[in-house]
Write a structure and sequence with these properties.
Blueprint lengths: L1 H15 L11 E5 L4 E10 H12 L2 E4 L6 E9 L1 H9 L3 E7 L2 E8 L8 E2 L13 E2 L3 E6 L6 H7 L2 E6 L4 E5 L3 H12 L4 E5 L2 E4 L5 E2 L11 E2 L9 E6 L17 E2 L13 H17 L2 E2 L2 E6 L6 E3 H13 L4 E4 L8 H8 L6 E5 L17 E8 L2 E2 L11 E4 L1 E6 L2 E6 L1 H19 L6 H9 L8
Helix pairs in contact: 1-10, 6-9, 7-8, 9-10
């Protein structure tokens, strides 16, 4: 079996997927203010990263309407700033307003300029897009058994904006960072408090890009009833998942959410949709086209441009309570959350956690993949570490970083360690399904067939 998986991995995946596209290159944005010209080659950028780069390069004060997102994809050379912004921002509105004795202001918005109120922090040279983003006016509080949060929150002047009742854990929101810092000091000496942690924001992963042409066919997978010994469920903690079509919807369980309803674009696949189909593609190959594995989607983003480590923890709990034995986490940041780590480490020992290693590329720890209980997956491109993929010592697995998916009969592709993690989760579930093995053997199987060793830089 080991030789079969290795052979399939080298030949089938390399020929079918990687050769379908040119090698992935790092995105570039060159804003030459002295010549008033802009050049760009961006394949899978995010709006937040783009605006941070613009603010850094120009010195402008950049404001964006809260909740505004866009997957940036543009290639051009030596255009004036106005034309460049139109191509970069697509259907978003913008206004560049000159100021007397001050830098110009750039407003980016969906509805009205007056709603562009969120100041964009200029990007720092060499800064990772996944840099830890502290939610400064929030705290995660975990109480001891029997303690109640509502009266405590009132005394602290906080709003309870999230609950995980099974953990006695709460997300508290304050007026500002100063109020949160003061509350942290008070909570440190409260005998009812088990722990106090910061909450971090994690940006929505980039969606798929439309493929101009590909020889890769849609997945063809038949659902078979689960055996009496139990069903294998993969918890997909991600953005919301749309109907897949192509007779694949029988592999999706009823979607759960910790972030409210999501209104998805019916004309393009969400990140969660892309990850679900990536799992099904690897399941098709390892199971020879027939499986009882199902995917439990858990939406932790809703309509928001970002989620938080608190909501991710809540999503993991929902996935486990929903029967998941494999939990896929195709997202992350450099924010190390003791609370999230505790949720993962306190999970039942038969749960397999698989996480994306990140796309910076850096050696910095990327969470939650870097937690020791998680199998961290980086991206492999034609047998080598992909140029965009993180390469920290926490990485233990390498898998294809390109996935072809179909939505509304149109081919799309996703590139990054998100796809690598989803592919690996599908392989893990397929291994359990075809061998009737328990999760105790999954890690050994994955490391035997997809293991990589990345040594720390000297």
């Amino acid at each position: 079996m080991k030789n079969f998986f290795r052979g399939w991995f080298r030949l089938g995946l390399t020929l079918a997927l990687f050769n379908a596209f040119s090698a992935f290159a790092a995105d570039t944005l060159a804003w030459r203010t002295n010549q008033n010209l802009v050049s760009a080659d961006i394949r899978t950028g995010t709006l937040s990263k783009l605006l941070g780069q613009v603010a850094s390069a120009t010195g402008w004060k950049v404001f964006v309407e809260p909740g505004t997102t866009r997957n940036v994809s543009a290639k051009f050379k030596n255009l004036p700033p106005g034309e460049a912004l139109r191509l970069l921002l697509g259907d978003l509105n913008f206004a560049l307003v000159p100021e007397t004795n001050a830098p110009p202001k750039l407003f980016v918005f969906r509805t009205a300029r007056k709603n562009a109120t969120q100041l964009v922090r200029p990007a720092k040279p060499g800064e990772s897009e996944a840099e830890a983003k502290l939610i400064a006016n929030e705290l995660i509080v975990r109480l001891k058994p029997g303690a109640k949060i509502d009266e405590l929150a009132r005394l602290l002047g906080a709003k309870v904006v999230g609950r995980i009742d099974g953990l006695n854990a709460y997300r508290l929101q304050f007026d500002d960072q100063a109020a949160a810092d003061s509350a942290r000091e008070q909570l440190a000496s409260n005998p009812d408090v088990a722990s106090v942690d910061s909450n971090y924001s994690i940006d929505r992963p980039a969606d798929a890009r439309e493929a101009q042409s590909t020889s890769v066919a849609p997945p063809r997978l038949q659902f078979k009833p689960p055996p009496d010994t139990g069903q294998i469920i993969v918890g997909l903690v991600d953005t919301a998942v749309q109907p897949l079509g192509n007779n694949l919807d029988s592999f999706l369980l009823k979607q759960l959410s910790v972030a409210g309803g999501a209104e998805l674009d019916p004309n393009s696949p969400s990140h969660g949709t892309s990850m679900a189909e990536t799992m099904l593609r690897s399941l098709e190959n390892i199971t020879k086209g027939s499986t009882s594995v199902q995917i439990l989607p858990v939406d932790v983003y809703g309509q928001q441009a970002s989620t938080s480590t608190f909501d991710i923890a809540a999503g993991i709990i929902k996935a486990i309570n929903g029967g998941a034995t494999i939990v896929n986490m195709s997202f992350g940041s450099e924010g190390d959350s003791p609370f999230l780590h505790n949720v993962i480490s306190e999970a039942p020992k038969n749960i397999i956690f698989i996480g994306a290693a990140g796309n910076s590329p850096v050696t910095t720890d990327f969470f939650p993949a870097a937690y020791p209980e998680v199998l961290a997956v980086t991206a492999i491109d034609q047998g080598k570490l992909a140029p965009y993929a993180n390469r920290g010592a926490f990485v233990s697995l390498g898998a294809p970083g390109t996935s072809v998916i179909y939505f509304n009969n149109q081919a799309y592709y996703v590139v990054g360690t998100s796809a690598s993690a989803a592919f690996t989760s599908g392989m893990a579930a397929g291994f359990m399904d075809t061998t009737r093995s328990g999760t105790d053997k999954v890690a050994a199987f994955l490391k035997s067939n997809f293991g990589v060793t990345i040594r720390p830089a000297k």
